[in-house]
Amino acid sequence: MTLHAARWWRKADPDQVLCELCPRSCLLAEGRSGLCGVRRVENGTLKTAVFGATAGLCVDPIEKKPLYHFLPGSRVLSFGMQGCTLACAFCQNASLSQGQGENQLRPARPEDLVRLAQAQACIGVAFTYNEPIVSAEWCLEVAAACREAGLFTFAVTSGYISNAARPEFFAAMDATNVDLKSISESFYRQHCQGSLQPILETLEYLTHETRVWLEVTTLLIPGANDDEREIAALAEWMVSHLGPEVPLHFSAFHPAHRLLNRPRTPAFTLHRARKIAMERGLSFVYLGNIPDEEGSTTFCSECGKVLIEREAFRVARDHLRVGRCPDCGAVLPGRFFGTHPGSV
Length: 344
Hints:
Structural class: alpha/beta
Shape: globular
Number of helices: 8
Order of helices and strands: EEEEEEEEHEHEHEHEHHEHEHEEEE
Radius of gyration: 20 Å
Number of strands: 18
Helix content: 10-25%
Distance between the termini: 37 Å
CATH architecture of the largest domain: Alpha-Beta Barrel
CATH superfamily of the largest domain: Aldolase class I
Strand order of the largest sheet: 9-7-8-10-11-12-13-14-15
Number of domains: 2
CATH class of the largest domain: Alpha Beta
CATH topology of the largest domain: TIM Barrel
Largest sheet: 9 strands, mixed
């Protein structure tokens, strides 16, 4: 792909450039790329190789992101790019995220994506499949075209972004699902070649300083981050720092990339995690990558009434009344069709 001028960088000295997009702060000499594999120095300036293209273009239910509390039952136009700000050993989309998916990229213009989304009756565009932060310049351009056309934009992200880039990137998003891979710093260092604190800062920023709708996903890996104490600590951190109403999705791991010696996550582990998280105070805890009726259903946090029933990623029955429980009238946190203050 053609290189495009990157943002969030500065000259560190006459011979090196400091990339300031993510907390890794790669110091790069001429011709060198960062760990992401897609941002490199050319002629003394930082360039991005992921601009004006898409990979894995697909129409998805919004529940597949997963976003369960943003216009349930809607369709979104999803696409990825190439590269990642982390290097997870268990990555489920390594062909794209680890900078090896250039042959999957197809040229695109923002207006093309807008027209396609509209033609497919999508409510918006989702940046997903790999880490959208590495292609932030391109995401912002597409997001601007979407906003002008009245479409929503969504980011499925690790949240591993710098303080400098975080406000502008998320200002362009209407909703996001952030991977909180673990509540353990050692897990991030051992399995992701990153650190935990920037992700926690992103989650708190989204909750307290933006109107972006937030949901969180944790992939449970047997023997790595599925200990009961760690699950409890993760839920407790979310309740105390984000509040009890942020939805949490526990997802099942399957062997992938460099982590092939671990078994798939048993359904029992996911059910136990959901029970622990709800006991610690989270109101909405869902299960992914396994068929589970209760773990995919939205219940009223006040009276327990079934509000949204799902079959896989399809909304089977929606009992909401303008974003409220039909029995007790409690408002369901999120963005729903209707006229109450939390709706769209």
